[in-house]
Design brief:
alpha/beta; four-stranded parallel beta sheet; 12 helices; 41% helix; globular
């Protein structure tokens, strides 16, 4: 594969290959081993100023693998055609990691580019983040297909990508949300028809958390009237008692402690968010090696 635009482009074997590569990257990192398969390459990272975790881990990974990271927040809403921007970049660079709202635009860039393109996040998808989280979860709970994953939150890029990867890896996944905030029907049908695991949507938090092994969350919509709909879905220690023993809570940052995951849960044994994000560096490096060391 040349590009990483969406989890839906990948197959099961390839995803597990990335997990194994991330394991190898972590082992080298712990040993302090110098490993530079991207030596001599120049890779643009195009992130807005608000990006912290994805940008830091990708740029650190680019540097550690021997390439030159060049941060350039590229705009695609000006007078210059995207064909001309990419046409010129084809002359000079060896890869592009880009965060942009439009999934269609990143797909278009990937079609035009002669270099590998990696999706650093869109409004519809966040493939590298979810690959990283699942890699970290596998380190703690290796038998992924036996786990019940519960996503508490609206249908957006994070939940979309979890349902995509559930379809690829035969995961059991349940979305819990207010009425009207479900993932889109097409994606639900895709996951339902492709995963050998149980795929569900419920509007009852207690029912959804029953027998949960991994609880996932995302940020809430910012509008006040919508926040009132989501408050009944705020996690608590008491609500998590219906989950399986040893249940783990992995929120997607940035985390607002007044919303989905309050301080009592963040400070509890349920929370594994920091530990999961340590996997970001190793997964980003595995992705960089797979797609750009050519």
């Amino acid at each position: 594969m040349k590009n990483l635009v969406s989890i839906s482009d990948l197959n099961k074997d390839f995803i597990y290959q990335l997990f194994d590569q991330a394991d190898a990257m972590k082992a080298r990192y712990v040993r302090g081993e110098v490993y530079k398969p991207l030596a001599g390459k120049t890779i643009i990272t195009s992130f807005p100023p608000t990006s912290i975790r994805t940008r830091v881990t990708f740029e650190t990974g680019v540097f550690q693998l021997g390439a030159q990271p060049l941060n350039l927040h590229m705009k695609f809403d000006d007078v210059e055609f995207v064909e001309d921007k990419i046409g010129h970049l084809n002359c000079w660079i060896d890869g592009l990691i880009i965060r942009h709202g439009s999934q269609d635009l990143i797909r278009r860039i990937a079609d035009l580019a002669e270099f590998p393109v990696i999706n650093g996040m869109t409004k519809d998808s966040h493939p590298c983040e979810i690959l990283s989280d699942l890699h970290g979860i596998r380190e703690i709970r290796p038998d992924l297909e036996s786990l019940k994953f519960v996503f508490v939150g609206e249908g957006a890029n994070i939940s979309n990508t979890w349902f995509e990867i559930a379809a690829k890896l035969d995961l059991n996944i349940t979305q819990v949300c207010p009425i009207g905030y479900e993932i889109n029907q097409e994606l639900y049908d895709y996951a339902k028809s492709n995963s050998k695991g149980e795929v569900r949507i419920t509007h009852d938090l207690t029912e959804g958390l029953k027998n949960a092994d991994i609880v996932l969350t995302d940020g809430w919509p910012p509008e006040i009237e919508e926040l009132t709909k989501f408050m009944p879905y705020q996690l608590s220690i008491d609500k998590l008692k219906s989950a399986n023993k040893g249940c783990l809570v992995n929120p997607c940052p940035p985390i607002n402690r007044a919303h989905a995951v309050p301080t009592e849960v963040m400070d509890s044994e349920y929370f594994i968010g920091y530990e999961m994000k340590s996997s970001l560096l190793h997964m980003q490096k595995a992705i960089l090696e797979e797609f750009m060391a050519r």
